[in-house]
Amino acid sequence: MAMRVKEVADLVGISVRTLHHYDEIGLLTPDETTESGYRLYSDNNLQMLQQILFFKELGFPLKKIKDIIKSPSFDQQEALELHRKMLLEKRHRLNKMIATVDKTIQHSKGEIQMTSKEKFEGFDFSHNPYEQEARQRWGDDAVDNANTKLGNMSKAEQEAMSEEMSAIYTKLAALRHESPASEESQAAINDWYDFLNKMGHYSLDAFKGLGQLYVDDKRFTKNIDGFGEGLAEFLRDAMAIYADKKRK
Q1: Cα–Cα distance between 227 and 235 in angstroms, integer?
Q2: Domain at 1-54: CATH architecture
Q3: What is the rounded distance in angstroms from the CA atom of residue 9 to the CA atom of residue 109?
Q4: Are 165 and 120 within 8 A, CB to CB?
Q5: What is the C-alpha to C-alpha distance for residues 19 and 128, in angstroms, rounded to an integer?
């Protein structure tokens, strides 16, 4: 049964505007359009939308997703199987990091003692074991956009990067009761912006959007607030102020 764009948006949890954008760039064009101009999405359209969102979850940019799914050699079943492998690996890494956050909370309360090594468990910047398979199937550019630049670092460099990230978060947590617009807060946020751009390219808009995600996605909020209650909201506000000022 065909569905209108608003029905699809409500079903999936994305905006009507996003679906319109996918149509405009030729990524997902509904199979039918009524005489009144209403877009009608078929079951096949919904299957392809699911595929697109799987690729997005793994970090693929829209342009590359379009190239992949429009290719005559694209195999949906094969893609789903590889998506599953990569998502399971991602879940494994996140579970380890969540466990580290939980231990850090206990450590900060004085309930347990953590070794220096334990503080950085889960911060694994090595390549996903299915990366080479993805490279062979969909090309280097797609995978390069789905991974960080940290993958080529030595173990020592990875540990140094983890320590730097922890230091930035610790500093930000100590500032979370201050004004996010203060000079000190903005200096710390600048360090966070520079750090993120060592791993990939973050525009000011993307940086601001990431800050909003810290609050909108409760999984992010829980992990970030493990460093200090209210830190996620502080980061959102400070990152928005930083981005807006830099654009002027």
Answers
A1: 12
A2: Orthogonal Bundle (1.10)
A3: 43
A4: no
A5: 30
* C-alpha torsion angle, residues 78, 80, 83, 88 (rounded to 10): -110
Question: Considering the entire predicted model, what is its pTM?
Answer: 0.45
Domain 58-147 maps to which CATH number in 3.40.50.1370, 1.10.1660.10, 2.40.30.10, 1.10.760.10?
A: 1.10.1660.10
Residue 75 backbone dihedrals phi, psi, to 5 degrees: -120, 110
pLDDT band at 38 (very low <50, low <70, confident <90, very high): confident
Considering the four listed CATH numbers 3.40.1180.10, 2.70.70.10, 1.10.490.50, 3.40.50.300, the one that applies to the domain covering 153-248 is: 1.10.490.50
Buried b (16+ CB within 10 A) or exposed e, 146-157: bbbebeeeeeee
Query: What are the residue ranges spanned by the domains of the chain?
Result: 1-54, 58-147, 153-248
Residue 148 has pLDDT above 50, yes or no: no
- Cα separation, 228 vs 173, whole angstroms: 6
Positive or negative: CA dihedral 45, 54, 11, 233: negative
